[in-house]
Recover the amino acids of this structure.
């Protein structure tokens, strides 16, 4: 346990851009009273039980890289940092599973698996810094989720500790019909329902081939139709990234591609054995070309692969004082999702809402399903050093963007979670019945309300954060 | 501008980075400490450089968590140099009088002609006249290592004279931020003029920048490869710091462990980490020991600091000269 001021300060916030902006303004953020760093599940249970008995709030903390304030400190609370619990506990090569502790960093796990011929297939742009526990807690999706699925889909077993210190284990099974899937109480719970202390995850053999391709479409709608036509064949590419016109201009500019104005770039990739990757690649490209895509060859895809994490590394250059876009820049991302039948409308509505408060709005579709897709917006406002204006535009963009997503029938979050940021819109997202059910779940699992209070808009005993 | 001023912009930049290189940091992996993440160190250095924190002992303590391995530089598209920031900040704290007592003890031991660690200086092989190469032993080298190297070089037809600093070449003191003592120790080095210098401990190149590291030197002798398979622990300071990766593989039949070459994983011995935070350094070494032991083969390295920590972590680890000399003759 630490009460060192520097340690407390480093645990004050996660990477929610609103908190980054506050730090840039020189504001002192609420800090925990202490940081506890357990090394075992038993220690987690002891800490939670101790805190619960005294009514002391506990904020679970993985790597502190969430972008919605889910790990932001609460004044007077203890922050439970599980970073020490970062070991690979078991790799079952027969079943194709790995059992890990929550603090392991995604890339560290991927390195471990890659050395042994496996991959998790979960490649969020934050893979270099985010922990598996945190990624599970927010129901993360990686860049290759079209092929490998979201992280929550890879969970075959889970261990969590409840607020009172009770340890719950959902044993590893390929699937089960033995009542409700209790794992789902904690996936997306963001530490409000329990603290994930162990997970058994499905693996895939490390692909021997990855075939990348780029195509351009005359507009987003044509591109979306083309992607859907590929999926209808039964072939599912590992990576599907369709950029809107604005983001295409940025991406193609970096690559030196000459594309028609307003055109939309699609990057598609197929991974697996050489034979399977070739088959999926060839079917996908054939369908995409038939649907109006102009084949650009492999280069846009291989370029994307080589620079897939650069955008996260660039973040500091945009938001730091005196950064590339000037002082007091507001910059964030908003990932929403909807069914194919409403995806155009969702894109148009959210884009317009964000654009009303932003100087730049970019978007790409990067997680596709048979039934729909996620749209990932990036929006930014330059304010020439006016921090108050930056905050105002930022909050307005979020308020209008989330409302637009709801009104268009989409979901307010696809894979970043809720935290503090999206809490105001979660009741509308779930509907009255769903929201009341969530309150009951929270009350049943954490009656004292000590677990991550305020996140998801929840306290204990059915209380709602104002 | 001061050294701390020189790194201010980089530290501020890093403090706004979303912790991207976390996965690469061996100290973070072994300890889980937020203040030891490269991001945490950027935050600390930025606060010191911008005058938001006093240059005191507490600040120095928050600068412990770096081994100088530069693993964080590999994925960084900005090439941020965390060890450089850390040593600049440490030196600013030392100049401001905030150095911990430990640093005074280390400097005093070295100034008195002992090793900074307080243990025995290695015994040098017999002196030779008219050497073709001067070998500079480091404070962490062992007498047996130097004796094996002497035999190896003699049989390879190299006439070497061995030299040792009077306690320390200064590299360790520089890592700890005591630049004045480090410079004084470097001045005390007594190496023959006009003879190429080879350093046994690659960290000693701080004091003799023109020197050749031992692995590169041995690989340049054209010796036949030792065909008994081993696991080679790439020293960070060689693989990442100097790009020396292929030389060891020309000398040894290497079975690659998890994390090799420029992605090598640290033993925990650099930047004075083993002095400042011995328990955490042992934890870093234990992690690396698991990777090195996995293939079930003897482990060889050319970093005497790493060898000591890895041996303490239970690794069957041998220094390069001893392995080559024993395998060859």
């Amino acid at each position: 346990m630490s009460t060192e001021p520097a340690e407390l300060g480093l645990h004050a916030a996660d990477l929610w851009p609103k908190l980054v902006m506050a730090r840039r303004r020189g504001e002192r953020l609420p800090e925990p009273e202490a940081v506890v760093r357990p090394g075992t599940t038993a220690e987690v249970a002891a800490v939670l039980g101790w805190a619960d008995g005294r009514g002391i709030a506990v904020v679970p903390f993985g790597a502190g890289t969430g972008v919605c304030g889910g790990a932001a400190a609460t004044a007077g609370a203890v922050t439970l940092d599980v970073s020490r619990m970062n070991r690979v506990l078991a790799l079952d090569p027969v079943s194709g599973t790995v059992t890990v502790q929550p603090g392991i960093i995604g890339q560290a796990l991927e390195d471990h698996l890659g050395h042994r011929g496996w991959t998790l297939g979960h490649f969020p742009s934050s893979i270099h810094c985010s922990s598996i526990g945190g990624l599970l807690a927010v129901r993360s999706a990686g860049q290759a989720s079209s092929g490998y699925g979201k992280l929550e889909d890879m969970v075959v077993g889970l261990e969590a500790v409840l607020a009172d210190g009770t340890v719950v284990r959902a044993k590893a099974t390929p699937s089960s019909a033995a009542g409700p899937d209790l794992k789902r109480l904690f996936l997306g719970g963001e530490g409000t329902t329990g603290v994930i202390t162990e997970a058994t995850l499905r693996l895939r053999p490390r692909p021997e081939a990855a075939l990348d391709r780029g195509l351009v479409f005359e507009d987003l709608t044509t591109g979306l139709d083309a992607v859907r036509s590929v999926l209808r064949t039964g072939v599912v590419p590992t990576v599907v990234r369709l950029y809107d016109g604005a983001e295409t201009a940025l991406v193609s500019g970096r690559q030196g591609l000459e594309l028609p104005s307003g055109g939309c770039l699609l990057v598609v990739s197929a991974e697996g054995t050489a034979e399977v990757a070739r088959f999926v690649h060839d079917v996908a490209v054939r369908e995409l070309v038939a649907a109006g895509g102009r084949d650009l060859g492999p280069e846009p895809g291989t370029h994307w692969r080589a620079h897939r994490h650069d955008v996260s590394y660039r973040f500091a250059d945009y938001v730091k004082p005196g950064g590339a876009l000037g002082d007091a820049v507001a910059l964030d991302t908003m990932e929403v999702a909807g069914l194919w039948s409403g995806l155009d409308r969702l894109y148009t509505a959210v884009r317009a809402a964000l654009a009303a408060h932003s100087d730049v709005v970019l978007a790409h579709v990067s997680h596709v399903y048979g039934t729909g897709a996620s749209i990932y917006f990036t929006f930014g406002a330059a304010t020439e050093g006016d921090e108050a204006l930056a905050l105002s535009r930022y909050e307005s963009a979020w308020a209008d963007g989330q409302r637009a997503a709801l009104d268009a029938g989409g979901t307010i979050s696809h894979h970043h979670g809720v935290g503090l940021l999206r809490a105001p819109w979660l009741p509308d997202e779930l509907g009255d019945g769903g929201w009341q059910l969530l309150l009951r779940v929270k009350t049943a699992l954490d009656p004292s309300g000590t677990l991550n209070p305020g996140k998801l808009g929840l306290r204990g005993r059915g209380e709602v954060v104002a | 501008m001061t050294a701390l001023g020189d790194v201010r912009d980089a530290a501020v930049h890093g403090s706004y980075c979303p912790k991207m290189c976390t996965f690469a940091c061996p100290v973070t992996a072994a300890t889980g400490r937020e203040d030891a993440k490269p991001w945490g160190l950027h935050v600390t250095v930025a606060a010191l450089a911008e005058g938001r924190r006093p240059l005191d002992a507490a600040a120095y303590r928050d600068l412990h968590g770096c081994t100088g391995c530069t693993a964080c530089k590999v994925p960084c598209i900005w090439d941020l140099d965390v060890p450089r920031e850390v040593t600049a900040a440490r030196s600013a704290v030392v100049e401001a009088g905030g150095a911990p007592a430990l640093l005074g003890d280390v400097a005093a031991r070295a100034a008195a002609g002992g090793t900074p660690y307080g243990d025995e200086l290695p015994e040098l092989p017999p002196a030779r006249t008219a050497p073709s190469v001067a070998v500079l032993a480091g404070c962490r080298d062992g007498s047996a290592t130097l004796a094996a190297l002497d035999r190896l070089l003699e049989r390879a037809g190299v006439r070497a004279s061995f030299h040792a600093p009077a306690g320390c070449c200064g590299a360790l003191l520089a890592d700890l931020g005591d630049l004045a003592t480090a410079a004084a120790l470097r001045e005390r080095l007594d190496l023959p003029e006009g003879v190429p210098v080879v350093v046994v401990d690659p960290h000693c190149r701080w004091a003799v920048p023109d020197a050749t590291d031992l692995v590169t030197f041995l690989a340049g002798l054209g010796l036949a490869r030792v065909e008994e398979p081993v696991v080679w622990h790439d020293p960070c300071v060689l693989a990442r710091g100097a790009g020396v990766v292929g030389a060891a593989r020309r000398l040894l039949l290497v079975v690659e462990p998890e994390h090799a070459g420029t992605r090598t994983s640290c033993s925990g011995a650099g930047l004075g980490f083993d002095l400042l935070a011995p328990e955490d350094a042992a934890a870093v070494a234990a992690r690396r020991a698991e990777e090195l032991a996995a293939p079930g083969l003897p482990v060889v390295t050319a970093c005497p600091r790493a060898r000591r920590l890895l041996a303490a972590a239970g690794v069957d680890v041998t220094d390069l000269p001893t392995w080559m000399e024993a395998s060859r003759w």
Summary: The CA atoms of residues 56 and 98 of chain B lie 4 Å apart.
